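dumping this here before i forget
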Amino acid sequence: MSLPEFDRETGWPGSGQPMANVVQGADAGRRGALVIAVMALSLGGLALASPASAQSAPAVRQVTVHGEGQAAAAPDEATIAGGTQIQSRTAREAMDGNSRAMRQVQEALRGTGIAERDIATSALSLRPVIDYQSAGNRPRVVGYTAGHSLRVRVRDLTKLGDVLDRMVSAGANQIEGLQLTVSDWSQKVDEARTSAVADARRKAEILAQAAGARLGKVLSISEQGGASPPPMMRRMAVPSASSAEPVPVTTGDQTFRMTVTVVWELVD
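structure:
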């Protein structure tokens, strides 16, 4: 075995470095190797954990069904849109004449037992009457038309025909429409919703049974559309003030419809 060579100047073995430096260099190398080994183990652990975390949860079996429901009710209230319209030579005469006629109509309505809160002005107008066929083909104003419209709420439909008769007899010459409504419409909408959900469950149970499964919990439920809106005002013919015939009114039924979409979980 050969002995290590000693540096002639320093007396230390090797290339002239002190022994302490040589020892320190060896320790640093060992520490670096240890750090690299720890990092390798950490990365290896991550690599081993990755396949497990990559596995996704099993998909939930589900069924989506649409349900429809409806509820019908007879209207129990009505809203009358009508009023007076007067034409005169001047704007002042037209407005004054229309005001007198409207006061008579309002008094007649109060005589039927309708409360003040159920009588409201909905429109007031004054416009010129223009003759476009005048001499020289030059349009000219030949008069003025004043109008006053009311919204009258009738809470007792047995009085509806009488209310219309009295309005016309008092001077109303404009009946713009009649709207029949159900006062507790929100309750009917809820009934339609309940019926729609029951219809959806019935369909879902049939599908689940056919697939050899049962219905689990509800995953989601949504509502499409909404209740049927109140019927639009319909224009009516104005009965003659001299006519003794009562105004016939047929109410019929109103139908409220709802549609829902429900998603159920399927279980074995």
